[in-house]
Fold this protein.
Amino acid sequence: MNDFNTLELITDNRGFATLWLSREAKNNAFNAQMIRELIIALDHVQGDPSLRFLLLRGRGRHFSAGADLAWMQQSAELDYHTNLDDARELAELMYTLAKLKIPTLAVVQGAAYGGALGLISCCDMAIGADEAQFCLSEVRIGLAPAVISPFVVQAIGERAARRYALTAERFGGQRAREIGLLAESYPTDTLDQHVDVWVANLLQNSPAAMRASKELLREVGNGALTPALRRYCENAIARIRVSPEGQEGLRAFLQKRAPVWQSREPRP
């Protein structure tokens, strides 16, 4: 499906999709059209039961330079209520990505500024280049990282979020890994090779179990122990054990063979 002007949504015949930010001439900067198209694309992904997971990437040298300057200039000329509508649209994008049922992996190269950190933080996992540059740059232009802030705090913690939101310091891929924004960072010229390794690893896993685990971890949250959470977890393992893929996985393990999801033929 490629009926977009700012994106490409490409489905791999092994059963996953890559959503490319594709405004290369603008360093994949956000504007209202890209935000709307991202929401539509994510809705499409959510509605496709054949997809196991989603990669989020940026075409060209940069993942995303943040907000488009022309769009920001237009926003500055709008009244409060129109700006509020824009903020709600951006929030819809972030919450839609964060709540996607399948696992999400962001792959970051070059610049990732402002709202781009929101997209990365909304993904379940992220990897990137050592040479990538990250920045919560909003305060430099008199703004605040408001809509993305809950997701950034979840990704890197309160203390680091305060530092980088208030200083607008740039930091690289290795620092992003240290604070938890990236799971791993690699030299730029090997990034695609490592993407292939991550994809191959995810393809080993039960699609239904990955969805169930993501839903489980969302419910668990920060792990605060409550009677309700205990009951939820007890029910979760019982449900997955009696599910078709749970039964297949247990049989395959006991019979010392590969489960069917590891041997499925690629879709034509």
